[in-house]
Specification:
alpha/beta, 203 residues, Rossmann fold, 2 domains, six-stranded mixed β-sheet, disordered N terminus, disordered C terminus, two-stranded parallel ribbon, 7 helices
Length: 203
């Protein structure tokens, strides 16, 4: 029997779609106008770079009155990201929103918004799931997080391995759509299934 090759099957997050959805969300939240900072742009991370580029293109096209006033890179830990976000908030006291492109950037930006007591004034839209970020959504400190559909990634990968062992598998490359999590839908069973990271077959 042939050995399993990870290159033969790849289920990945659609990072460009994630960027477009982030643009749609921040434009909706700000009602089509305002100032936004982008934090967590990492030129060495292909996925994050795709997210940030798609975000800017979509925002210019769909919401030209929503203006990006800062573009900041990533950091090695949330404390550094918090410092970057705090500097952005100080430089732009009337900032309306922050869009982050990684969980670390979201955590640091959330902490900076809390420290500056700008909860509610600065809306935060982030990317990538972390348990504490979900708590931020529940508390109303974070507007929304775009998450990868890890449940479907796992389900498809397990299905492919099963087919591979039976000799029926074919190479696949599938881009999976990200999911927008907000306070309004975080308790929906479909969202909880993804957040649980439980890849067993569920009814």
């Amino acid at each position: 029997m042939a050995e399993f090759s990870p290159e033969a099957h790849d289920d990945v997050n659609d990072d460009e779609a994630m960027g477009r959805l982030a643009a749609d969300r921040i434009a909706t939240v700000l009602q089509g106008k305002g100032t936004v900072a982008m934090i967590g742009i990492d030129p060495n991370d292909i996925g994050v770079l795709a997210r940030s580029q798609a975000f800017e293109v979509a925002l210019r096209t769909k919401s030209p009155r929503t203006v990006v006033v800062e573009r900041r890179g990533g950091a090695t830990n949330p404390v550094e990201t918090q410092s970057v976000a705090a500097e952005v908030l100080e430089d732009h006291p009337d900032l309306d929103g922050i869009v982050t492109f990684s969980a670390m950037a979201s955590e640091g930006s959330w902490a900076a918004i809390n420290s500056s007591k700008k909860n509610g004034q600065v809306r935060l839209v982030g990317c990538d799931q972390e348990l504490d970020l979900m708590a931020g959504i529940r508390h109303g400190d974070i507007d929304s997080i775009l998450i990868e559909n890890t449940y479907e990634m796992g389900r498809l990968a397990m299905s492919w391995i099963s087919d591979h062992r039976k000799g029926n598998a074919k190479g696949k490359y599938i881009r999976l759509s990200p999911i927008l999590v907000t306070k309004a839908n975080i308790d929906d069973p479909s969202i909880q299934k993804v957040l649980s990271n439980n890849w067993r077959v569920q009814p």
